[in-house]
Design goal:
Hypothetical Protein Pfu-838710-001, 2 domains, CHAD domain, 51% helix, eight-stranded antiparallel barrel, 8 strands, alpha+beta, single chain
């Protein structure tokens, strides 16, 4: 038996490649996993092992490992729980220790994890600069969890002012790009929600690029457009699904109108239209492939992003916040004066971006960010429902909603008109409170938070 001190890190830089040994292909699966123990079978060229791990302590676990024959390993695969994890392992020496860097493939493509196993603790100062965030103890990154649950959901976007600004920008951007790519890889007629998850990750990424745009205006603006275009091929299925969700809310809110307005029949027709978008697998695969290609190209460009040493992160971020709020106030004025659907749609985009910005800056935002962020989230949801109502009213007018013959859409349209009017009033009132002005002393507060440790472009480990 060997007791190991095990630490795990995400890897979001390629500084390790120059020192890496030749990679070894590994296939592994689990015949039991849960709680504080797991039973793993690992296959690699030349043999196979059966490993038992016990213990809940994040860094210290008891491990028993036994050689098994390749034939036995293949037979045990019939009893695997979850999926087979495929990866290539590279051994990378640094400061007297050897790091195992696993580059995952298949459904986990894009994930790179470095592991250090030692009999004694290693000081953080002795860790290599190419390590990213430490994930020791985060169960979703254990190999057993990866086999059972797939790619972990990305942590909340957040800029850490104690780390180099350019590395924080890249780290957050790559996390959302990887989340979008992983969700696209899971998209199928049986898993339509994966497209929604991909679009959400892309929107968060674009909000980040907008916030930091002044750090590298040309590059970040171009990548924001690239990811905008990446989301377009997969927009139709998600938008069709959103209409079904809005019908569910209307049915719950107006039970007395279900019969008179034919809400259940209309909901069924919209659900059938949504399902038809997934029937042609060739079209779905083509849309996903186009989105994957664009996301992959964007990820590569962001990974290579370099921010100049003269960039002031506090100034960049304050400018990004104020720029978005100014757009929101402009959209609010237009929505108040014209009440056109496109004005409310523009308002929604700025509110959703502001919600993402608050999350990124939650550690350094002046004042109570939680209450403000909750208000932005509620307003974003209300504006989303209002947008869906506007879409349905436009399709009723154009005769393209796809309803069965014989359904009189008049009562339904009047219900939508009434709901849109009430929602518009509420959204305008809430937006006036949220977007009234940027917080006072925002740049000064950010500058104090970043301090010397957050100087843009300063050397250091982004970990």
């Amino acid at each position: 038996m060997a007791k190991e001190i095990e630490r795990k890190f995400l890897v979001d830089e390629d500084g390790w490649l120059g020192r890496a040994g030749e990679g070894v292909a590994i296939r592994q699966f689990y015949v039991a996993a849960g709680g504080d123990r797991s039973v793993r079978v690992r296959q690699r060229k030349g043999g196979a092992t059966l490993t038992l791990k016990f213990g809940e302590h994040a860094r210290e676990r008891d491990e028993f490992e036994y050689e098994v024959s390749p034939d036995d390993a293949r037979e045990m695969a019939a009893f695997a729980v979850g999926v087979v994890v495929e990866k290539t392992r590279h051994l990378v020496p640094h400061a007297g220790h050897v790091y195992e860097v696993d580059v995952f493939a298949g459904s986990l493509a894009g994930l790179v994890i470095a592991e250090l196993e030692t009999p004694d603790e290693v000081a953080d100062a002795d860790l290599p600069a190419w390590l990213g965030r430490e994930i020791t103890g985060e169960a979703e990154y254990y190999n057993a969890s990866l086999a059972l649950n797939g790619m972990p959901r990305p942590g909340a976007m957040r800029i850490d002012p104690s780390r180099p600004f350019d590395r924080e920008l890249v780290r957050n951007a790559l996390a959302q790009a990887d989340a979008a790519i992983a969700s696209l890889g899971r998209a199928s007629p049986e898993n339509p929600v994966a497209l929604h998850e991909a679009r959400k990750a892309i929107k968060k990424l674009r909000a980040l690029l907008g916030l930091a745009r002044a750090a590298a205006p040309g590059i970040l603006a171009a990548e924001a457009r690239r990811f905008r275009d990446a989301a377009r091929p997969i927009a139709a299925p998600r938008e069709a699904g959103a209409l079904v969700e809005t019908m569910d809310r209307l049915i719950a809110e107006f039970p007395g109108k279900v019969a008179a307005c034919r809400l259940a029949d209309i909901r069924a027709a919209l659900a059938a239209r949504h399902a038809r978008l997934f029937e042609d697998r060739a079209d779905l695969d083509a849309a996903v492939a186009a989105a994957l290609q664009a996301c992959g190209e964007g990820r590569a460009a962001l990974r290579a992003l370099v921010v100049g040493p003269d960039v002031d992160p506090a100034e960049v971020l304050a400018r990004g916040v104020k720029r978005n709020l100014a757009r929101g106030r402009k959209a609010l004025v237009a929505a108040r004066n014209r009440a056109a659907p496109e004005d409310f749609h523009a308002l929604r985009k700025t509110v959703k971006a502001h919600w993402a910005h608050l999350g990124l800056l939650r550690n350094v935002w002046p004042g109570k960010v939680g209450k403000r962020r909750a208000a932005a989230e509620r307003l974003g949801e209300d504006l989303g429902e209002l947008n869906d109502i506007h879409v349905m009213r436009a399709e009723i007018a154009a005769g393209t909603l796809g309803l069965p013959e014989g359904i009189d859409t008049g009562p339904f349209d009047r219900l939508l008109k009434s709901k849109a009017k009430a929602l518009s009033r509420q959204c305008i009132a809430d937006a006036e409170k949220l977007l009234s002005a940027a917080p006072r002393n925002l740049q000064k507060t950010l500058a104090a938070a970043f301090g010397d440790a957050g100087a843009a472009g300063s050397p250091g480990k982004a970990g």
